[in-house]
Amino acid sequence: MKFEKTEIAGVVVIKLEKIQDPRGYFARTFCRREFETHGLSTSLVQANTALSHHKGTLRGMHYQAAPHGEAKLVRCIRGAIFDAVVDLRPASPSYCRWFGVELTEDNGRMLYFPEGLAHGYQTLQDDSEVAYMVSQFYTPEAEKGVRWNDPRFNIVWPIVDGVLLSDKDRQWPDFTD
């Protein structure tokens, strides 16, 4: 795996190193030793997957409030997504800044981010599937979110017309300090 730091502290794009032959490829998607070497959490306690049938589906922007904050490792295993995070850590030099990256089944990228960031993604193809691991167990009463198009963050989503949202995601408020 190749680890590429981003402009947001603790947010890392991880590129799979594929060993290929005529059968296909093999790649590691997690190695505790390599993650620890790069200062990333290795306390991953839950694995999740989500399938979105339609291009333009947006899931986010979600986070769990402290002390239940989650570090996440996100990978698109079918189709393509635009994955985005917003830094909600008040003491961070990148507070209220966002970062986004395209993750596809072909490009071999994953996104790792620490707790304290809101997360969301938008599908760029029909039938896109995302797999992710988290560092905390889901705690419903700690679930929080901010509006996907909050002008404070000004995330540049690839698709803005005809975005498909859940009722819950449509109702998240704008961010307040």
UniProtKB/TrEMBL annotation:
Q: Which residues form the active site?
A: H62, Y132
**EC number, as in UniProt:** 5.1.3.13
Q: Which domain of life is it from?
A: Bacteria
* Broadest EC class assigned to this enzyme: isomerase
The metabolic or biological pathway listed in the UniProt record of this protein is:
Carbohydrate biosynthesis; dTDP-L-rhamnose biosynthesis
For this entry, list what GO says about its biological process: dTDP-rhamnose biosynthetic process; polysaccharide biosynthetic process
Site, Participates in a stacking interaction with the thymidine ring of dTDP-4-oxo-6-deoxyglucose: residue positions: Y138
Q: Which reaction does it catalyse?
A: dTDP-4-dehydro-6-deoxy-alpha-D-glucose = dTDP-4-dehydro-beta-L-rhamnose
Q: What does this protein do?
A: Catalyzes the epimerization of the C3' and C5'positions of dTDP-6-deoxy-D-xylo-4-hexulose, forming dTDP-6-deoxy-L-lyxo-4-hexulose.
Provide the family line: Belongs to the dTDP-4-dehydrorhamnose 3,5-epimerase family.
PANTHER family per UniProt = DTDP-6-DEOXY-D-GLUCOSE-3,5 EPIMERASE (PTHR21047), THYMIDINE DIPHOSPHO-4-KETO-RHAMNOSE 3,5-EPIMERASE (PTHR21047:SF2)
Q: Can you state the subunit structure given in the record?
A: Homodimer.
Protein name listed in UniProt: dTDP-4-dehydrorhamnose 3,5-epimerase
